[in-house]
Specification:
mainly alpha, rod-shaped
């Protein structure tokens, strides 16, 4: 019988087969290698040259200047010439400014009644301008070379609003 001072030793260490120890070493080596590659990869990526295509912010800033300017010179006068009376046409043309009719508004933010078609046209041109500015070679956006350039693009509601009036359409 054992004495009370004598302790029983338990060994919680389990002996694994030798092949497991080799696999454990291999796994440690793999994880260490991946860790080093992850750290070094971050430095390599941060040292890479900047991309050639403009960023989204630069494209938006450029197009938010160009689309209203084009609207003032071309789109808005075309829209105003489709008005019925000479007085309406002149009144409309006076408001063809970047801060009035040619402001790019969200879909629900159109404040001028009857200006919805021009707002839709400006939004469509802005979206196409940004896509073409960011991807002029048509490699990333899904646009093709046959797609209409943004200055020639016509939104359906704008085309409908600026169509020539025929005796039938006045009724």
């Amino acid at each position: 019988m054992r004495s009370s001072t004598e302790s029983i030793r338990f060994s919680f260490k389990t002996e694994y087969p030798r092949s497991w120890k080799i696999q454990e070493r291999k796994m440690k080596a793999i994880f260490l290698t991946l860790f080093v590659l992850a750290i070094c990869g971050g430095y390599v990526n941060s040292a890479s040259p900047p991309r050639e295509d403009p960023s989204i912010t630069a494209a938006v800033a450029t197009c938010e200047r160009e689309v209203p300017a084009y609207c003032v010179s071309t789109t808005c006068p075309l829209f105003c010439n489709s008005r019925h009376s000479t007085k309406q046409k002149e009144s409309c043309k006076k408001t063809c400014t970047p801060n009035d009719r040619c402001t790019i508004r969200a879909n629900a933010a159109s404040t001028q009644r009857g200006n919805e078609a021009l707002d839709a046209q400006n939004r469509a041109q802005l979206a196409r301008c940004i896509a073409q500015t960011r991807d002029p070679n048509f490699k990333k956006t899904g646009l093709t070379a046959e797609d209409t350039p943004w200055k020639e693009l016509r939104a359906p509601s704008f085309t409908h609003a600026t169509r020539p009036l025929t005796p039938r359409s006045r009724a």
